[in-house]
Specification:
With about 160 residues, the protein is α+β, with helices and mostly antiparallel strands. The protein folds into 2 domains: about 5-65, no CATH class; about 70-160, ACT domain (Alpha-Beta Plaits). Helices cover about 20% and strands about 35% of the residues. The protein has 3 helices and 9 strands. The strands form 2 sheets. Strands 1-2-3-4-5 form a 5-stranded antiparallel beta sheet, with no helix packed on it. Helix 1 crosses helix 2. The longest helix has 12 residues, at about 80-95. The chain starts with 6 loop residues before the first strand and ends with a helix.
Length: about 160
């Protein structure tokens, strides 16, 4: 009988400070072999990979996504109490079956499966946050992490399966 995969923590490069020091984010993951790991939750700051993606890690926390797990990660950044924003989002997100992966006083990270569709996701977040200047939402794995604008388009292949 095979033993269950053992959970570990990997360090993903999340950015660089003004002083040049690198910033890393600790992510729970399961080793799947050959320097690859399946993420057990979505990062808050490391861009491009999310829960259930398989990433290949390199030196200094650099990584690339080998296989997408089908989740879109949506980050919500709040000026003050993210718990208030979370409560406001709940009725709008109910039909999307989100997983709340991360929560602190100013941030939330939700995972929603791509099959729920961009239109439904964007409508829910836009409606929930309409008229509010104390929070903003953004995708964590839809646009190129370097330029922030070029769509990654990984979902086309995923949805074609």
């Amino acid at each position: 009988m095979a033993s269950p995969a053992e959970e570990t923590v990997i360090h993903l490069l999340a950015g660089q400070r003004k002083d040049g020091d690198f910033v890393y984010e600790d992510i729970r993951a399961v080793a799947v072999g050959d320097g690859c790991y399946r993420l057990l939750h979505s990062p808050l700051f490391a861009r491009g990979a999310v829960k259930d993606d398989v990433v290949r890690t390199y030196a200094a926390g650099q990584f690339e996504v080998e296989t997408h797990g089908g989740n879109l990660a949506i980050r919500v950044m709040a000026k003050d109490d993210a718990a208030v924003i979370k409560q406001r989002l709940e009725p709008y997100l109910k039909d999307l079956n989100p997983d709340l992966d991360y929560e602190n006083e100013r941030s939330l990270v939700y995972n929603i499966h791509i099959k729920k569709g961009f239109d439904a996701i964007e409508k829910a977040f836009n409606q929930a946050l309409q008229g509010r200047d104390d929070a903003v939402w953004l995708y964590a794995n839809v646009y190129d992490p370097v330029d922030g604008e070029t769509p990654l388009n990984w979902w086309h292949d995923y949805l074609a399966k």
